[in-house]
Amino acid sequence: MKEHHIRVQRTARYHVLGDPARAKVLWIVLHGYGQLARYFLNKFAGLRTDLAIIAPEGLSRYYMDDGHQRVGASWMTREDREEEIRDQRDYLDDLVDVLRRTNPTAPINVLGFSQGVATACRWSLTGRTRIQQLVLWAGSIPPEPGPKELNAGWAHLEIDIVLGTEDPYISDNELQALAARLDLAGVPHQVHRFTGGHALEPVLLGRLMRY
Question: pTM of the full predicted structure?
């Protein structure tokens, strides 16, 4: 048996807060595992009115309960990993191309939450979109980029790492290891802590989404 691949077209979904055509900054926010973009985007309501916040949805949806009532989305799994990474990178670059039709000059900032952190990292390192600020919230940098790749892709970025003090999925030791990895790569960054768990904290969120 031999495995093959074929490129196909499909329809992706994204949700928007604000007016991308008039925004001073465009924020691409990437949800976590099992979330849907429209519910994730609700967390950003009430932020600055001169921002546009765009939440693309992961291409893989699935039922999350036995009764088939709750639907979630995922960015990828380990199955057919390299092709899924390429698909998500091209998808996000194509989304920015659409936004650029009405706003060709506004800076692009990216926030990844939980599973969306790895997606944000891979896109910012291998995609064609130039990003100004990268927020990595409650997630980990994927294992594949080495110090040279991190430096080449991120040395020019403003990088913020965020973790709640009671997050059940990432320990303090893991956070320290992540920061040390960026130090080794010569990538400037700031670490932010807040009292809470695996969630977006509104006050810190508003402070980070500045320009």
Answer: 0.94
